[in-house]
Design a protein that fits this description.
A: about 35 residues; about 5% strand; B: about 220 residues; four-stranded mixed sheet; 9 helices; 4 strands
């Protein structure tokens, strides 16, 4: 059992997603508006 | 029983396309589940703040917010509201931008994490979206959030205590970090089995096709 205080945290690896293409007219809101 | 399909959804409670996208996804899910009753689907909502710079305690209207802080003309904003209200109505949703209260939504996201912990996240998400778009409630106020949570089946005083203590603050930050890692810069955003991404309030046909794709993978 590793000592939690001495163990190295390995960050979770985020795999890129395969985007489902569904036309250009995306209905989204972002920081600059909708 | 097959292993569950995971659907992770990044969204904000004051995002008009998020509520519409939620309904369209639910329409697709209903069709999918009717055809695939043996296939469980786990849905988790994740935090994404559209306007994290909104000061805590600020209460304005979306019209003021978008026209004064985002550089859009009042006419542009009103036109967008009219268009989106009409599209929402087609999904059976009632939007009232004239009485909506623009706030900092971080505490609302904390409530969603609390609700997830209690197994009531889907009910709470629906209640928060309705509270913002239909009922015009102030989702920056912890007492109002506790009321909305209680109506969704949460213990009001326990939820209020968690909000006041900031118990789930870190979960909001982690969700937003994950969104950045995935390159998400707009919501709603749907990730299926951590493999396929769908951006925006797409049609039910797109969601259905993606559910079928991952269930046969």
């Amino acid at each position: 059992m590793p000592d939690p205080q001495n163990s190295v945290q390995i960050p979770e690896v985020t795999q890129p997603l395969i985007m489902v293409q569904a036309g250009d007219d995306l209905e989204v809101c972002g920081p600059d508006g909708c | 029983m097959k292993p569950p399909i995971s659907v992770d959804i990044w969204s904000d409670v004051q995002c008009p396309w998020c509520y519409i996208g939620k309904r369209r996804f639910e329409t697709a899910l209903e069709t999918f589940t009717a055809a695939n009753p043996e296939q469980p689907v786990n849905i988790v909502y994740h935090s994404f703040e559209l306007s994290p710079d909104t000061p805590e305690g600020f209460v304005g209207t979306p019209l003021e917010y978008l026209s004064e802080r985002k550089g859009l003309s009042r006419e542009q904003v009103l036109e967008m509201f009219a268009q989106v209200t009409q599209i929402a109505a087609a999904e059976g949703l009632e939007y009232h931008f004239e009485r909506a209260q623009q706030v900092n939504t971080r505490k609302a996201h904390e409530l969603l994490h609390y609700a997830k912990d209690k197994g009531k996240q889907l009910e709470t998400k629906e209640a928060l979206l309705r509270a913002f778009f239909t009922e015009g409630l102030n989702l920056g106020d912890v007492d109002t959030l506790a009321d909305v949570g209680a109506a969704a089946g949460l213990d009001r005083s326990d939820a209020l205590a968690a909000l006041e203590a900031g118990t789930f603050e870190n979960e909001v930050t982690l969700d937003e970090q994950k969104a950045r890692d995935l390159g998400i810069n707009g919501v709603p955003f749907f990730a299926f089995n951590n493999t396929y991404g769908v951006s925006g309030a797409q049609s039910p046909a797109v969601f259905l096709e993606t559910l079928e794709k991952v269930s046969h993978a």
